[in-house]
Amino acid sequence: MPDRREAGETGGLARIAALLESAVTGLSWAMTAVAALAVGLIVAILLFSAVQRYVLASPFPQTEELAAFLFVVVAFFSIPLGFLKGRQIRIVALWRKLPPALQGWAAILGHLLTIFVLVMIIQETGAFAHLSYEFGSRSWNADFLEWPWQAVIPGSLAVMVLAVAARLLADLGRVLAGRPVAAAEQAARAQVEPE
Amino acid sequence: MLTAAIVATILLALVTGNLLGTTIAGLGLVVLWFEMSGNFSVLGNAVWNVFNSFTFTAIPAFILLGEVLGQTGLARRIYGALSPTFARLPGKLLQTNIGTCTVFSAISGSSTATAAVVGSIAYNELERRGYDRRLLVGSIAAGGTLGILIPPSIALIVYGAWQDVSVGALFMAGVLPGLMIALFFMLYIAAAAKLRPAVAPDEGPVEPIGRALLISLQAWPFIILVLAILGTIFFGLATPTESAAIGVATALVLALLYREFSWIKLWRALVNTVTTFSALGFIIVGAVILSQAVSLTGMPREIIALVAEAGLSPPIVITLIYAMYLVLGCFFGPVEMLLITLPFVFPVVTGLGFDPVWFGIALVIVIEIGLLTPPLGINLFVLITVSENRVTLGEAAIACLPFWILMLIALFLITVFPQIALVLPQIAMGG
Amino acid sequence: AWSADEEVSWKVGSPVGPNDPTTLNMQEVAEQVAARTGGKFKIEIVPLETIGFKNIDELRVLKQGVLDAVYLVPYYLSRDEPLLAAMMPHGALIDPNDNLKIKDVQYEIAKEILEGDKWQLKMIAPAPFGALSEIVAVTTTPVNSLEGLRKLKFRHFTKAGLQAFNELGVSTQVIPSSELYLALQTGVLDGSVYGPTYLKSQSIHEVACCYAYIGAFTASYPFSLVSTQKAWEALPADYQKVLVEVNTEMNAKSWEGWATGADEKAADAFLAEKGMQKLEPFPLADREAIQAAMFKVWAEEAEKIGPKAVENMNRIIEALKSGKSAS
Ligand code: NA
Ligand code: NA
After folding, report:
1. Closest ligand to B372 CA?
2. Which residues lie at CB < 5 A from ion ligand 2?
3. Distance from CA of C146 to the nearest CA of B (A)
4. What's the predicted TM-score (pTM) here?
5. Which of B17, B97, B119, B245 could make an SS bond with A43 (beta carbons 3.0 to 4.6 A apart)?
6. What does the pLDDT look like over B228-258, one tens digit per residue?
7. What are phi and psi of C153, to 5 degrees?
8. Is A44 within 8 Å of B283 when comparing Cβ atoms?
């Protein structure tokens, strides 16, 4: 979470970062809620497919495909909040040994690298979804249009880019103000000080 | 050039304290850049194909099962009931982890699902009771690997269908090695508890055995749960994937009976299930990209060809193949590893006269070891996530090291005495 | 004299596994092409699953420039090109030999689709294929009639089959083939359509007692070698010729192998030895009912895809009825 007391002190950059962070956090929570509903739906679908085999005369072949699509929603909609809450695994042992002055810049470089990698993945998974849109690709059994489900991947990762960008701006503000950075440090605390 | 870029990427990751997902995906991009002239377009297919798979859909259901048991207090009741009986064993309730993993291995075909469900049932409750966090992580992450050894097993089905090996024989062959490894794990936990009694908390005065067993009867919801899941599979009412959902429904009914059900608790269980994935999704994306990149280079095939053509003796060849899988296991998930390597490894191994059923089991064990090997040990991640990052990757890996060594010993025994795997299928096939 | 002794190497994707007969046939094509070009034209056969793709990605992989060509299996491609999948469904033909009547028209249709504006690929030649002719119903109790199937929980592996059998009153579902073994063992399923060679490779004899002929595989799907235009145009003319010749010859050989049914006879023998019972075929009236139901589903499906699909279907059915088996 951004430290709101800072906003007044370091001015523009921190304020933008805090604003972005709270917007992305809200969005990420909404995505998490959708993913939670998707988990419930997956379970309901699996139950239904077991029950229908005995109760109904004709089974319902769409269930398997729908469950697999919903899994994509669960796996990806959960990613941005996982990042914001510092749940994603980092290897911080070496970074912690850097002199404090370098830690900030190193963290900023790390954010930039993450954004770069994410943008590459977004571009290619987006192109994949776009190809499906052009082909009008449909799932084998249930005839679901595939591209909206495929677009879940670049869409979720784009929200993660925003989240990383919020942390990048906040860290930049701190480094320029001569303060220690928070983002990686927070994760480091989660990793190092569980006692 | 490629090597330099890989080293640079890893160094950069360490210096910036970066996300593991970024780092692994970055390595994949580097390999694609140098080996596939920067053709990244394959990423789209690869990521979609891995995530849009029916075999995964059981995993959220199994994790939800664990979360429902936790939120409704059923897990606490079950462990409370079992505690007097296990209090007399060295390691106390830690021993139940291996037992529970063995039971869930017989339900689920996937090691990650097994670790996830047992982790979400057991971790919080046993940590609350004061058990040693590392031994807790090690026992569940390692116990979870039994998931693909004890039937049913996705990995064995892939292996059998692909290489014309009897799936039934493979399933039977997995039973004894699976039980043997489970026994090793329990003995290790007992030994660790004898040496360092602090790993297990004081569970109160040891009750007389009769009374302890009587109290343990209060764990009946767990028995109902296992019967509901195993029974529906056994009597053909549900596929293993569907049985996960039946488990969730059963847990909810039990919660209602105990008047512990509420919509808030169910919602919390759902959100916690999602949170478990929040740490895994991005790392798996990275792993998919890296394994896709490496498989496009044809490297695994070339290594195997090299080994095959060197004219080495069978024991050396099989040792080298194990070594290759141990290295690959650092970076690949079990099914990807099978798909990438098996077409080239299988002819070499069977050509040397090894039994294909036996090799299936040896292969699964060596692949399971990979699930515990950092940086990309999926079972380690599951437990780190379940612990809400209170355990670091390094700690989890160290916690698993003894289990890792025990599995290597099991692999050695099964290699020297193939009968451990083969005796059951031979009896069944009337051999 | 080869065109300036040019060295060319192609990566060609196979949609099936490394040990599948189809992949082995492709390896042989590669060897013969190398032999006839003095080793100058090298073809590497790459099973898609060993490089992280699925068979349904075949056409995308070509578009993405990862491979130069692929061996096309049309029915895998319903996701990206529904027209290719809208051909004679597996199991709809009553007699395996009916395939000979429709193979040329199905090849023509595929060529029109793939060389059209949407894909702009090059359909090089008909290709060798794994010779399958008989589809069987495998069951856990002896059943060889539609009436008997109506008492079972059944599985079909095609969409048309799924719908058709449900319409015929057989409770039919899709279960992934990786779960088939367990499903038959535990009783989630009582039967499934399958091929005898797959019964053998997936050890289904361990969990089912019997099987009976129920319809024909569509061996006449246009299995063929398809490349990008770019790769084709960059290929020297004499290499092009060799590639067409070798594939066409091997395709003819596949049809000969298909006619003898050697693989299936071997599978039958193996299954008999394992104690499996091959029952009398399903009665002709039942097979005709299945065909009618499948044609109905096919027509509905074609209607959904569009007028082109309906036109293609009519061409195929016309060829079947006019009864001339082309060669
Ligand atoms: Na299992
Ligand atoms: Na690993």
Report:
1. 2
2. B 329, 370, 373, 376-377
3. 23
4. 0.81
5. B245
6. 877 777 777 777 678 888 989 999 999 999 9
7. -95, 115
8. no
